[in-house]
């Protein structure tokens, strides 16, 4: 792999800290860090860096492989950078199925107007489903969400759970035929239950308390790809309503031990 200018800067920073008798913090890649030039392996899976701009008007940046750094040696983490024009995304070759779990350790930087995520995704051009773990610093929250579309309206089922930024979080999502359970730092924080008698209604439904009912028509049943990203909003009204205003901040998200 080649080394990007940003990675060189991080390596020089690590060398400077070592010369002063200090070690790099757990939120910085170490001296053996590597830039990402293509597909790579982590946590028993193959991953691909995204290099495109999401067409959704919420997104205000272009995914770049140059923003990604792999920890070296015993550091198995993936580091994703964000600035005003570029952001970070990795896609696994592993597709999650109903009856399995996904999760891992995520470091969430406190950059207003951004989100650090781990989610599953399916889209065949007609049906779109997502199961989301999204940390939103401007709201001080974790945003567990389920998205469904079948050639027409998009339906979003969501909640907002307090969660700190500039902090590590361990997340787990257990997706079954009857429920989806979000666990944050060892505590169940939200559950969605499949309801066969509930019709599709409002296109955005925000749950209160610790659980909510989901129409069976919106329930995910097909295999979905595992994806992690760190991106900023476009500062449209919808983006500000979701993520808050982005004011040009930079930051680094970290993912480790994903499954």
TrEMBL record:
CDD domains: Glyco_hydrolase_16. GO terms for biological process: carbohydrate metabolic process. The keyword Signal applies. GO terms for molecular function: hydrolase activity, hydrolyzing O-glycosyl compounds. Residues 1-21 form the signal peptide. Keywords: Signal. It comes from the Bacteria. Pfam families: Glyco_hydro_16 (PF00722). Residues 18-259 form the GH16 domain. The keyword Signal applies. This is GH16 domain-containing protein. It comes from Deinococcus soli. The lineage of its organism: Bacteria, Thermotogati, Deinococcota, Deinococci, Deinococcales.
